[in-house]
Design brief:
alpha+beta; SH3 type barrels; ten-stranded antiparallel β-sheet; 18% helix
Length: 271
């Protein structure tokens, strides 16, 4: 066990990551939730986990908490039971997220999640005990903007949070997946989405309404790419200098929306 020793805490997190240990993490935030899970990555600012759900006896999404908030890292007595359950369902060792998470600052972390999850669950536990779930519309160097989704699976208003206040970021869980499936895509497209007719105008990318062609490739251009390397698709695609590969995959519903995310020079599209 560790307590209030940042170097010791970091070493325990790294050991847990390297040895696939199931741990319980406690943080120095009053009344904050404990977290049971497998450490996947330890960054300068954030640490990511595959969250273990004892009710489901399995991994249920991914959670990132601020590394500096972690006070205690404890190995669980039931580690063998958890492993047996994961092995039974072919989930051992716990998988990483579909794409790497950038753990060195909050903005980069959120933007690395956007390309692989339609909803993000955030908390700012020092100011508010509630959790907020929504679709990321925009990030800046200081804040993130979400279109919220209520527990009734209905879309709500847009709200903004300061990045420095966020203490917990979660995505990829069954609850969030069910909310999005029931609610569907927001009626108004977010700043990170465009409809298929817009994508169709990109040269050399064969796209038809209602379907995305697997592994179709082509190039497109954006007018600028910010420090975050996120290409926001409201930018003009004419007269730019930067060429980026576009990949589409999967099948879309009628009148689909294609989400575009640029990460390390690659733009991925999913319907």
């Amino acid at each position: 066990m560790s307590h209030d020793d940042p170097e010791r805490v970091r070493q325990l997190l790294l050991t847990a990551r390297d040895e696939n240990q199931l741990v319980q993490v406690r943080r120095g935030i009053a009344r904050s939730d404990r977290l049971d899970g497998y450490v996947l990555g330890v960054g300068d600012e954030w640490t990511s986990f595959a969250s273990f759900d004892w009710n489901l006896m399995g991994v249920n999404g991914f959670v990132a908490v601020r590394t500096s908030d972690v006070d205690e890292v404890q190995s669980r007595d039931t580690v063998r039971l958890a492993r047996r359950a994961l092995e039974l369902h072919g989930e051992w060792p716990p998988a990483q997220p579909p794409a790497p998470l950038r753990l060195d600052n909050t903005r980069s972390l959120i933007e690395s999640i956007v390309g692989q999850s339609p909803l993000v669950h955030i908390r700012h536990e020092r100011n508010d005990p509630d959790a907020y779930i929504g679709a990321v519309l925009r990030t800046t160097s200081r804040s993130v903007e979400l279109r919220l989704i209520w527990k009734e699976a209905t879309w709500a208003e847009v709200d903004r949070w300061l990045l420095e206040d966020i203490t917990w970021i979660e995505f990829g869980g069954r609850y969030e997946a069910a909310l999005y499936e029931l609610a569907g895509a927001p009626a108004s497209a977010s700043r990170l989405t465009r409809s298929i007719p817009d994508v169709r105008s990109i040269p050399d990318v064969p796209t038809t309404r209602g379907a995305c062609h697997t592994r179709s490739t082509g190039t497109w251009q954006v007018s600028s790419v910010g420090r975050s390397r996120t290409a926001r698709v409201q930018l003009s695609i004419a007269g730019a200098r930067s060429e980026i590969q576009l990949r589409t995959s999967g099948k879309c519903r009628t009148s689909p929306v294609i989400s575009l995310m640029c990460s390390r020079g690659t733009v991925s599209a999913s319907g």
